[in-house]
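It is worth pausing here to work through a concrete case rather than discussing structure prediction in the abstract. The textbook approach is simple: state the sequence, then state the predicted structure, then interpret. We follow exactly that order.
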Amino acid sequence: MPDGTPLSPAPREPAPCPALPEWRAESLTGPDGRAVIRLGSQSYVLRITRAGKLILTK
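Step two, the predicted structure:
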């Protein structure tokens, strides 16, 4: 470099993990953007917000 500033290393992309299942949130939720997820005897609500974020509540 002419000014002596070192180059930063290029960011690396995370390697895909074939062992992890992948789902689109829209395919899990109904038309209202919500789904019930059960874990053992507990129920949770997965919700897509207007801002496109996911919220999981008990």
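Step three, interpretation. The mean pLDDT is 87. DSSP finds one helix and three strands in the chain.
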